[in-house]
Structure formats: structure tokens, C-alpha cells
Amino acid sequence: xxxxxxxxxxxxxxxxxxxxxxxxxxxxxxxxxxxxxxxxxxxxxxxxxxxxxxxxxxxxxxxxxxxxxxxxxxxxxxxxxxxxxxxxxxxxxxxxxxxxxxxxxxxxxxxxxxxxxxxxxxxxxxxxxxxxxxxxxxxxxxxxxxxxxxxxxxxxxxxxxxxxxxxxxxxxxxxxxxxxxxxxxxxxxxxxxxxxxxxxxxxxxx
Length: 206
What we know:
- By secondary structure, the protein is α+β, with helices and mostly antiparallel strands.
- It contains 6 helices and 5 strands; from the N terminus they run ββαββαβαααα.
- A hairpin with a 2-residue loop joins β1 and β2 (8-9).
- The radius of gyration is 22 Å and the shape is elongated.
- It starts with a strand and ends in a 7-residue tail after the last helix.
């Protein structure tokens, strides 16, 4: 079995797929890169296939890994998350308008979309920080933004408050959270995501 990382041969301990994966990941990490695609005999590997990989015999003749520089991958993900915050703000504003008109039910699809997107943005920051070896508690940001873990905690608190307000069908509190508190968070998160992305060194473009 031939194992390739970005077109370059990789040595493995044996001919199993498990060994191929271990060798490919190790080789990528040694170069400061992460695996972004795997192909078996030219076909993309699905998550379901990945979960069945063993160290037993295989009929696969070629395992081809494609990697990307860790920093570039994180920068791109954080940039996408920052763009998502713009969509969050739009949904929050739409929800707030419905709430101010006294229509909680019409606001709920916008609230649901915003909350789900916030979860994606939060996870992107946490996972990106782990990949870039960023300490959420100590990473330096402008004073008006605060710490990364502080932003995460504040967001969690406000989303909890939002859930409580909706359960009580409190239109005033829900509208205030949508139009003011969480829109303030959108401004904060847009700035912090952009700041973190800009601080991560770009890698080679190979």
C-alpha cells in the first residue's frame, strides 16, 4: 500500500489503514499541518468509513492525504465565524422587531437560527484556539474586548437568560436581549474573532 501526504511518500509501520492514518497524521503534524482530506484509491473517505478503520488487512492500494497549514486553517475558520456573526446580528434584529410588535411566535425562528449559529461560532473559537495553541484565559486582546474565556462565559450567561425569558414568554426581556445585550456581544465577537485571526501567522501555501 502506498501512503502519500500532499503527493510525498510516507513510511508506515505496516500495511494497515490504521498504520497509514497514524503515519499520515504524524507526518502532517511534524510540518505544522493538519489533515483536511483523505482518499482511498482516489475516493474521498467519509466519516462513516473513517470510524471503521482497523489495523487488519485491507484491499486499499493507495491512501492519499491532503493537508493544510494549521495557522491558515484556523485563520480561515475564524474568518468564516466572523462572517457568521453578521448573520447572527441580522437574525437578532429581525427577532427584536417581531418582539417589539408583540409577536413572540414570529420571532422564534430567528432566535433559533441565532442561537444555533452562536453555538457554531463558539465551538469554532474553542477548537481553533486549541489547534493554534492559544490559551483562552491569558490571550491578550484590546481591553474593550476582554479575555476569550470571558467572552465565552458572557455569551453562555446571556443565552441562558434568553432561554429563561422565552420560557416565561417575557417579550420585553427577550427583545432587550436580542436588540441590545446579544447585539453588543455580536460586536464584541466580531472584533475578537478578527483580532485572533489576524494574530495567527500565515503558513506556507504548499
